[in-house]
Each structure stands twice: as C-alpha cells, then as structure tokens.
C-alpha cells in the first residue's frame, strides 16, 4: 500500500532524497528519488498500488498533469507485442537443414526438448527408407566426425551406375582420390544385389525415381556411369538422369596428367595414365581407358568410349558417340565425325565423316618357329610342368 | 605472450603495460594532449604515468601533426616515443607525419635509420560522439608501406600487444577501441568460448582464434574481424551454440601489412567467411581480406566472402541512428544465418 | 686583406656551386632521373651556418634544396653525385635522390614543413640526453605558410628546446613571390612566440657566419630556440628551366653573387688552384659514379626498402 508523499507536487527534488513512504504487508520503507527533477504526484496517499506501477514522475521542468499522462501513454511498453522472433522449438541449424531437405520442421519429432540437426537427419533418413521399403537406402554417415551436411567439408559421394568391370575400375581409381568416394553401386543384375564390389554395396536395380529420392535426401552427391561397352545406354541414362536433376561427377584416376585450361563437362571417366594437353575440351559422359592421350587444343564430344592408348596429336575434334578401339593414332587437326567407330591399331590422317566405320586391314600371321629355338609356348609349358 | 590476470580490463591492461614499458625502457617517452595527472588522458590510459615518470611524459598543445612529428624526431634521435592522439579521427592531421615521415625515413635513407614510434589512438563509435569523434580512420593507413597497424581486440592481451608494438623497430599505429576500454579481457577458453588459441603471424604479432565448439569439430562459419569488433562477435558465441551453429572467430592484431596465412587457415576450416570491420566496407579491410582469401583458397570457399561494416555515411550522434549506421551483433547474426541458408 | 676563413669558405662555396652546375649538365645529358633543386647564389647561407655548428654532435634538418647544406656538413661530393645518378654507392643507395639525404646527423625530406616538427622532436631528444647538441632546421620563405611551422615555433619555445630556425628567404616559393603568399613580415613571425631573432642579408658569407655563430652560441647557452633570417637570392631556376623572373631582376642579383664577392678577396692564384682542384675532383666523382652499377632491387630490399609479400 502506498503511504504518503513527503514532497508536494511540483517540488524540485534531488537524487536520493526521500519523496514518499510506502508499506507492504511486511514493512514500511522510504522511497527515494531515483534522479533529480520536478515531482508530479500520481498515486493518492493510502491507495493500493501494484509493484511496478508508476506513482510519480520526475521531469526536468515543471509540467502539466496532462503532459505527464501523455508521456506515460507514449512510453508504455505494449504488453506482449515485441519485435523478437516467435519462440522456436528447434535450433536454427535444424531449421536450415530442414529447409535444405524441404522438410516441414514442425513434423520432425525431437529427441530432447528441442528439434536438433540430428533429429532432422534421422527424420530425413527414415522418410527416405519408408518411401522405398523394398530396397536398401544409401547409408547416411550420421556419425561421421566430418561434417556431412555441407558438400565441401567431405568427399563428394558417388553413386556408380553399373556393377561390372567398369565399376571396379572406377572404385580402383577412387582409391587414390581424396575428394570423392563411392557410396553405392546399382545394377540390373539381381545376382549381385546385396553384395559388395570392393566394399561398396550393390543396392539394387538401376531405378531413377529411387535415385532421385536418395539424392534429395542428401545421401549421394553425384552419379557416374561405369558401363563403357554400350554407348546408347550411356547416353540414355545420362540424359534421363540429368533431366531429373541428378548431377554427374568426373572420375579421374590420380595418375592422369591434366594440362592447363582443360575444360571439363561432367560424367567423364578417365583411367590411369591418361593425358590431356593444355586447352583441351572434354564434353560430357565420355569413358577413356588407360593411356589415352588427348593432345592440346583437342575437342572431345559427348558419350564417346575409347579403349586404351587412343593417342591424338593436337587440335583433333571428335563428334559425339565416337567409339575407338585400342592403340589408335590420330594426326593433327583431324575431325572424327559423330557416331563413327574406329577399329584398333589404325593411324588416321584425314577427316572422317559422320557415321563412318573404319576397319583395319593390317593383318599378321602366326607360325611356329624352327626347332632349336625355344618358343614362348614351350617356355610356358615347361614352367607349368616344373 | 603472457596471460593477463583474469578480469583485467582492456584499459587497465594498457595502462599497466605503459607503466611497465616506461619503467623498463629509459628511452621510452609518452606525449599527447591532456595526458597529465590528475586528468590522466581523455580515456585514462595514461593515468598515473606523469606522476611516476614526470620527466618523460609530455602534455602537448592541440597539435596532432606535431605530436606525431615530434615523436618522429625523437625516434630518429634514439628515443622510443609513444604518442597518444586523443580521438582516432584526429589522426588525419598527423597523416603527413605518419605517411611521409615516420614510414618513409628508414627506407628512403636506405636503412640507415629507424623510427621506432608508436602512435596510440582510440577509434570507433557507439558512444554518441557523432561524426568527428566516432570513426575508424585506421582505414586511411591500410597498405602504407613500412607502417604497421596493430589493433587490439579484447580477445588479445592488449597490454602485451602494446609492448610488442613498442619493441617494433618500425612505426606502429596502435588502434584501440573506445567501447573496449571498460571490458574485461577474454583470453582463454571459458564461458561461451570453448577453444581459444593464439598463433603468431609472420610479423610476430598474435592472431587469436576462438570457437564456440570443442576443438575437434568443424565450424559452420568463420568470422574474421579486428579490434573493437570482438565486442560484437563474442556475444554471439553463446547464442550460436544454442542454435548448433559452430562459429570460429579469427582476430589478427597486425591488420596491415596482413599475413594471409592464418586467416586462410581459419577461413578454410569452414569455407564460409564473414569479415566484419567497424568502418565502411567499400575499399576497406574486408576487401583486402577477401582478395587474399580468394587468392589463397579459390574454390575451397563455398560462398562469396561477406563483408559487414558501417553504412557509407557519417556516424550520427543520435543513438537511434548510430545504432543502425554501425554494424551490430544483430547484423552479424543475420548475415551468418543468410550465409548458412544459401550454402 | 684576406680573412682567415675566406679560403676555406671559398673552397666550400665553389664546390657547392660547381657540383650543382654539374648536376644541371648531367640532367641535360639524361643521366639524372627526376629533378634537381640547386642553391646556386645561396651558398653563403649553407656555408656560413653549417661552419658555425659542432659537426661532431649538432643535428641538421633540411628540405628539397639541401645540396649546399649537405656538402658544407660532410663534404661527401662523391656520395652525393652517386646518389643523384641513382647508384648503389650513393649516400642513400640511390633511394632518396636529391631531396632525401641522410648522413651523420643530417636529415632532409621533400615535404615542405614536415621536417620542422621532426627537428623539434630531435631537439627534445638532445635536451633529454643532455648531449649539449643543438638542432638546426633550414626552411624557405614559402614554407613559412605551413601550419606545422607555427606549431613547432610554439613547442620549441614552450618546452625551451635547443633549436635554431634558419629561414633562407630567397623571396620565392617556386614561381610565387612571397608578397603573394604571406601577410605581414616574415621576420616578425618568431616574436609572438618569444623567440629571439636576427635578420641579415646573406651576401657576405663571413657576416652570415658571424651571425650564425652568435645564434648557435645563444641556443647552446640558453637552451632556447633562436630564429635566424637570411635574405638571399636564388640565381638559378627553382628546379630546371622553370624561371619566370625578369632578366633585369636576375642581372641585379648576379651582380651581388656572394661567391664572386668572396672570390674577390682572395689572390687570383689561390683561387685558381682551388677551382682546378674542384674541377678535377668533380670529374673524378662523375666518372667514378657512372662506373658504379645502378642500384638493384635486391639490395634495395636487403637494406631499407625490404618488404615481405
Ligand atoms: C608540402 C609540399 N607542398 C608543395 C611542395 C612543392 N614544392 C617544392 S619546393 C616548393 C617551394 C618551396 O619554397 P620555399 O619554402 O621558399 O623554398 P625554396 O624553394 O625557395 O628554397 C614547393 C611549392 C612540396 N614539396 N611540399
Ligand atoms: Mg623560397
């Protein structure tokens, strides 16, 4: 209860001066002026006042009661309305992660008192696997000490399409690569489903909609096609998957030598000891076996497949879907038209029109050597016998 | 660098260091406006000094060009002057002496002389002093050859840093910050600071890195800043920890010339960088840091380096305006969220 | 009748004159990169004042027109020639060039007025060291327009510093006569700061020297600043070929050339011997400097200009 004023309205009071007495249920105490100023009395003596209620005002000049009331109204803090964000029951990090995965965060259950990034991750994984219960999901590295949510903090995770010899070659090439790793293989051959290729699980058939979900869940970053034998297959998969937003990765064996200003498309597979001269241009989705040398300023189209040791001189241009055998030499400036097929062992010195099939006429014969000379066959045979 | 006693304030740390420098080095002299006791300087950094060393503490007239110019002459002739410019804004009047005299003599006389001079001055706003008493004019001196700019944050042992500057054979502009003066130094992993490390840059000056997460983890974002910005960045540590956002703050003390290596290391840890400076960003320190980081890291950066600083205008006196013209904790917070959202 | 110092002063003044004329020649030949400001006609101020100093301890600050002060102080014509020719063997390794010289206790800088507070600091240093040294700062009439000069007059007097201001009033700042730059009388400038002064015409080096000895002794004994104003005249252009003054005006001053005035007091044979020695010495200095390699970036970086990148 408010007691009484010890100063009249309009009086000048100095800081610390006692201006009133008040009593609570327990005690009676003095009220001191918190600052100097002219006093305007608001509370009547003996009135009940709540804690925090304004009982008087100190002003630098003598002011009217109206002015005091106007000032009180103007400075009153509205009861609830503030500019602060509404209370969240999740962390900002969880919110950002949910945004990234297009998850409604209010649907994510919290393990503790707030939804955390781990909760969102678990939710995303569970959602993906429940959508496709029939087959496995790529294992998320939730316990990885490396931050797995942001691509640049860890190796790019690759999904390998095709589980044959090409897949093994790709996995082998990745052994020496620090910025990429294979997380799964898919193949239409049911016999290998559930098995592993050099430690990488084969999760099922080549299924684009499954892959789209896995990618959206952040479980792999890019795909790569390991099949080199069928160019139409490579092209079809590449185009379909690209149209659904799946990125393709270039897998380049660490022993390859890449010169300056080489321009890369995506989805290329480059095997050991290949060479790309300065300013060469590589399109999309090509497969180059070991020892290929694409000299400086050459241009490679898309969806080509080369055997080992395709060696070009400078400024050679390849159209799309060119297939080369093994051991081919191409002279400078030659253009190889799209959809051409070039047999092993040829040296090419002229432009090749589109859809050409180049056969080799070079032949050789094998005959046994005269007695007294040790043949290779015999040598081998001898060793096996001993 | 010796660890300061906990809870020593920034101003106290500087004050003690000055006294220790004077006691240890008979060639040290201090000069500036209004620095004599009992007043002891506008920001009290020199308090007590003139009582202890009356013959080596000089109160000057209001003549900033001469405060620096006289110091240059003293330094050329074998003394180790530590000059105070009352407000950093007035260093503009001493610019000719810093640029064309202090920083030039050693090189233009082919190494035959040294100018071991420290000019201390408080920069920064936030106190309502208005357009001519609130700037961060160290920006005028970035990149001046042979002039070192040393900025003490409260994540540095400010006094130890002043001693390093005083021992430097090159002239140093020592940038203090008005709002840091009353703050306790924060020099270890405690409270919201979960890891705290100091390395030396190639000029021998400390670079402090502090994180709000345990050392083994990887940060989400790297904040690079200097001097008074520690006052704005540190309060985010606790809040960000609650939001699971890991922040690594990197505060170099030698801000020009700049050793990019420790900054690049801090930047590479997250790949996302925000540079905060109190001055306007255009043509500023953040631009230099960004250029150095791009050169060092290239594609290791996941997002363009963000620069935060004051609006490109004068610093107003009115609180409502000053708060918005200057960079704030809220602005840094929003920038971090935005950066994490986009990358 | 010959003054005992006349021969010495003639040798110094003639050396300054011929060195600076040689710089004009080298400039015309394209050997000097940049500019030169000569003190041709003003040699009496440099020689008269510098010879009044104690070269073992006193300190000199000067600015762009300092060849005379430099030669009178240290006689190192060889180092100066090499410096202007940009050679590593120059007194500042070719980095400073004509306007930025340092040797011993002499310091010059090319920013008008900026050296004056430096001289105040140096005077404070010598006072604190109780070395007994004094500091001399040379400044031109044009430089009296700079604010720091007045800050420095104030401080030197306020703190009672051993600092001698020598104003070499050659009437011009570059192309502008002092009447278009200064209100009032330059000789009155020190008075409100309670700094004593002497003003004299600097045609007679021996008179300059007497005045300078008096000024130096006053500074040294009182420990207070002093202001010596020397009215002189520059007979050559401000730097190279940028002279706007009338031929009559120049002719009038050529007739009072302090070097000729002093020469007239010496026997012809003595003068001729001095002149011949100077020619031989300068020829050798130029030949020697031109034979030196130009300054290299590597040694520049190893010495003063080092940087890390
Ligand atoms: C701060 C500054 N302003 C302008 C110049 C360009 N400048 C060089 S010498 C000179 C004239 C100086 O006149 P004065 O002081 O009379 O000396 P004098 O050349 O007559 O010896 C000027 C304007 C300069 N070097 N420094
Ligand atoms: Mg002049």
Q: Largest protein interface?
A: B-C, 41 and 41 residues
DSSP E strands of chain A, number: 29
Are any ligands bound, and if so which? thiamine diphosphate, magnesium ion
**What is the arithmetic mean of pLDDT of chain A?**
84
Oligomer: heterotrimer
The CATH topology of the largest domain in chain A: UDP N-Acetylglucosamine Acyltransferase, domain 1
Distance from N terminus to C terminus of chain C (CA atoms, Å) equals: 65 Å
How many β-strand stretches of chain C?
9
CATH homology group of the largest domain in chain A: Hexapeptide repeat proteins
| Helical/strand content category of chain C | alpha/beta
Shape of chain A: elongated
Descriptive tags:
heterotrimer; A: 386 residues; OB fold (Dihydrolipoamide Acetyltransferase, E2P); Rossmann fold; 20% helix; disordered C terminus; C: alpha/beta; two-stranded antiparallel ribbon; 11 helices; 12% strand; binds thiamine diphosphate
Descriptive report:
The complex is a heterotrimer of chains A (386), B (343) and C (309). Chain A folds into four domains: 2-75, Beta Barrel (OB fold (Dihydrolipoamide Acetyltransferase, E2P)), CATH 2.40.50.100; 92-134, no CATH class; 145-243, NAD(P)-binding Rossmann-like Domain (Rossmann fold); 251-358, Hexapeptide repeat proteins (UDP N-Acetylglucosamine Acyltransferase, domain 1). The longest helix of chain A has 15 residues, at 117-131. Residues 145-153 and 378-386 of chain A have low confidence and may be disordered. In chain A, the strands form eight sheets. In chain A, strands 12-15-18-21-24-27-29 form a seven-stranded parallel beta sheet, covered by helices on one side. Helices cover 20% and strands 23% of the residues of chain A. Chain A has helices spanning 65-75, 92-100, 117-131, 165-175, 208-216, 231-243, 376-385, and strands at 2-5, 12-13, 18-23, 28-32, 37-41, 56-59, 156-161, 180-186, 196-197, 200-204, 222-225, 251-252, 257-258, 263-264, 269-270, 275-276, 281-282, 287-288, 293-294, 299-300, 305-306, 310-312, 317-318, 323-324, 328-330, 335-336, 341-342, 347-348, 357-358. Chain B is α/β, with parallel strands linked by helices. Chain B folds into two domains: 10-180, Rossmann fold, CATH 3.40.50; 195-342, 3-Layer(aba) Sandwich (Rossmann fold), CATH 3.40.50. Helix content of chain B is 32%, strand content 20%. Chain B has a seven-stranded mixed beta sheet, with helices on both faces. In chain B, strands 7-8-10-9-12-13 form a six-stranded mixed beta sheet, with helices on both faces. The model of chain B has no long low-confidence stretch (mean pLDDT 96). Chain C is of the alpha/beta class and 309 residues long. Chain C has one domain (6-302): Thiamin diphosphate (ThDP)-binding fold, Pyr/PP domains (Rossmann fold). In chain C, strands 2-3-1-4-5-9-8 form a seven-stranded mixed beta sheet, with helices on both faces. In chain C, strand 8 (196-201), helix 7 (205-222) and strand 9 (226-231) form a beta-alpha-beta unit. In chain C, helix 1 packs across helix 2, helix 2 runs parallel beside helix 3 and helix 4 (77-84) packs across helix 10. The A-B interface holds A 91-94, 96, 99, 116-117, 145-147, 150-153 and B 216-218, 220, 242-245, 271, 300, 302, 337, 340-341, 343. The site of magnesium ion has 6 residues of chain C, from strand 6.
């Amino acid at each position: 209860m408010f007691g009484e004023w010890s100063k009249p309205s309009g009086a000048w009071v100095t800081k610390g001066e006692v201006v009133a007495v008040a009593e609570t249920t327990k005690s009676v105490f003095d009220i001191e002026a918190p600052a100097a100023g002219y006093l305007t009395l608001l509370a009547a003596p003996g009135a009940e006042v709540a804690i925090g209620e304004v009982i008087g005002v100190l002003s630098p000049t003598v002011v009217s009661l109206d002015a005091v009331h106007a000032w009180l109204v103007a400075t009153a803090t509205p009861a609830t309305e503030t500019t602060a964000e509404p209370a969240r029951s999740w962390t900002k990090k969880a919110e950002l992660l949910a945004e990234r995965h297009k998850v409604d965060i209010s649907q994510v259950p919290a393990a503790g008192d707030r939804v955390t990034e781990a909760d969102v991750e678990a939710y995303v994984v569970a959602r993906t696997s429940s959508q496709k219960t029939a087959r496995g999901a790529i294992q998320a590295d939730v316990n990885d000490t490396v931050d797995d949510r942001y691509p640049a903090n860890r190796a790019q995770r690759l999904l390998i399409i095709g589980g044959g010899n090409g897949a093994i070659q790709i996995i082998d090439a990745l052994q020496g690569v620090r910025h990429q790793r294979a997380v799964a293989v898919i193949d239409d051959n049911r016999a290998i489903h559930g098995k592993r290729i050099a430690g990488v699980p084969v999760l099922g058939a080549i299924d684009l909609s499954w892959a789209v979900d896995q990618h959206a869940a952040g479980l792999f970053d890019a795909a790569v096609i390991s099949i080199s034998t069928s160019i139409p297959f490579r092209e079809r998969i590449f185009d379909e998957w690209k149209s659904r937003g799946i990125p393709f990765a270039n897998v380049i064996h660490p022993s390859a030598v890449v010169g300056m200003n080489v321009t890369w498309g995506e989805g290329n597979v480059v095997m050991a000891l290949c060479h790309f001269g300065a300013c060469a241009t590589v399109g999309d989705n090509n497969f180059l076996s070991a020892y290929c040398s694409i000299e400086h300023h050459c241009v490679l189209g898309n969806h080509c497949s080369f055997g080992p040791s395709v060696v070009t001189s400078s400024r050679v241009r390849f159209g799309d879907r060119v297939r080369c055998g093994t051991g081919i030499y191409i002279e400078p400036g030659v253009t190889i038209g799209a959809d051409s097929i070039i047999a092993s062992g040829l040296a090419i010195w002229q432009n090749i029109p589109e859809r050409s099939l180049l056969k080799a006429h070079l032949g050789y014969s094998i005959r046994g050597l005269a007695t007294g000379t040790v043949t290779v066959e015999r040598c081998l045979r001898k060793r096996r016998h001993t | 660098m010796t660890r300061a006693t906990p809870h020593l304030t920034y101003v106290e740390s500087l004050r003690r260091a000055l006294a220790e420098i004077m006691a240890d080095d008979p060639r040290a002299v201090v000069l500036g406006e209004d620095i004599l006791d009992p007043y002891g300087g506008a920001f009290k950094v020199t308090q007590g000094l003139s009582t202890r060393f009356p013959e080596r503490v000089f109160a000057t007239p209001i003549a900033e060009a001469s405060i620096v110019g006289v110091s240059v002459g003293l330094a050329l002739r074998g003394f180790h002057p530590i000059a105070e410019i009352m407000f950093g804004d007035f260093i503009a009047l001493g610019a000719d002496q810093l640029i064309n005299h202090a920083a030039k003599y050693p090189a233009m006389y082919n190494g035959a002389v040294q100018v071991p001079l420290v000019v201390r001055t408080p920069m920064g706003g936030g106190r309502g002093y208005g357009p001519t008493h609130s700037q961060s004019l160290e920006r005028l001196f970035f990149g001046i050859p042979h002039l070192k700019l040393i900025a003490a944050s409260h994540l540095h042992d400010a006094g130890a840093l002043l001693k390093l500057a005083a021992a430097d054979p090159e002239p140093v502009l020592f940038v203090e910050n008005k709002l840091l003066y009353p703050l306790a130094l924060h020099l270890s992993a405690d409270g919201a600071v979960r890891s705290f490390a100091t390395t030396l840059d190639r000029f021998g000056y400390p670079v402090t890195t502090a994180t709000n997460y345990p050392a083994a983890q990887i940060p989400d974002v790297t904040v690079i800043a200097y001097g008074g910005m520690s006052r704005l960045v540190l309060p985010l540590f606790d809040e960000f920890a609650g939001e699971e956002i890991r922040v690594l703050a990197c505060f170099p003390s030698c801000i020009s010339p700049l050793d990019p290596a420790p900054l690049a290391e801090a930047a590479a840890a997250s790949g996302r960088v925000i540079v905060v400076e109190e001055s306007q960003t255009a043509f500023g320190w953040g631009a230099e840091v960004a250029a150095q980081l791009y050169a060092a890291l290239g594609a290791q950066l996941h997002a363009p380096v963000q620069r935060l600083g004051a609006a490109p205008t004068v610093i107003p006196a009115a609180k409502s305006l000053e708060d918005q013209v200057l960079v704030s904790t809220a602005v840094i917070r929003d920038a971090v969220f935005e950066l994490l959202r986009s990358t | 009748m010959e003054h005992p110092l006349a021969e010495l002063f003639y040798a110094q003044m003639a050396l300054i004159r011929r060195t600076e004329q040689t710089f004009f020649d080298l400039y015309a030949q394209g050997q000097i990169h940049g500019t030169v400001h000569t003190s041709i006609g003003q040699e009496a101020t440099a020689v008269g004042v510098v010879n009044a100093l104690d070269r073992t301890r006193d300190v000199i600050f000067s600015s762009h027109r300092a060849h005379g002060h430099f030669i009178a102080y240290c006689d190192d014509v060889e180092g100066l020639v090499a410096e202007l020719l940009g050679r590593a063997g120059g007194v500042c390794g070719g980095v400073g060039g004509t306007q930025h010289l340092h040797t011993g206790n002499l310091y010059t800088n090319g920013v008008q007025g900026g050296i004056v507070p430096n001289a105040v600091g140096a005077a404070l240093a010598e006072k604190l060291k109780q070395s007994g040294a004094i500091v001399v700062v040379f400044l031109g009439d044009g430089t009296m327009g700079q604010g720091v000069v007045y800050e420095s007059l104030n401080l030197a007097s306020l703190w009672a510093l051993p600092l001698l201001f020598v104003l070499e009033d050659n009437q011009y700042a570059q192309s502008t006569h002092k009447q278009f730059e200064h209100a009032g009388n330059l000789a009155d400038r020190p008075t409100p700061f309670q700094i004593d002064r002497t003003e004299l015409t600097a045609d007679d080096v021996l008179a300059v020297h007497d005045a300078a000895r008096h000024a130096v002794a006053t500074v040294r004994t009182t420990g207070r600043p002093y202001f010596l104003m020397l009215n002189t005249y520059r007979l050559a252009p401000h730097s190279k070929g940028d002279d706007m003054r009338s031929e009559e005006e120049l002719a009038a001053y050529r007739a009072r050339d302090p070097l000729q005035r002093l020469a007239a007091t010496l026997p012809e044979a003595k003068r001729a011997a001095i002149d011949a020695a100077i020619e031989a010495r300068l020829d050798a200095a130029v030949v020697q400097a031109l034979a030196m390699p130009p300054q290299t970036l590597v040694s520049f970086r190893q010495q003063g200009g080092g940087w890390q990148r």
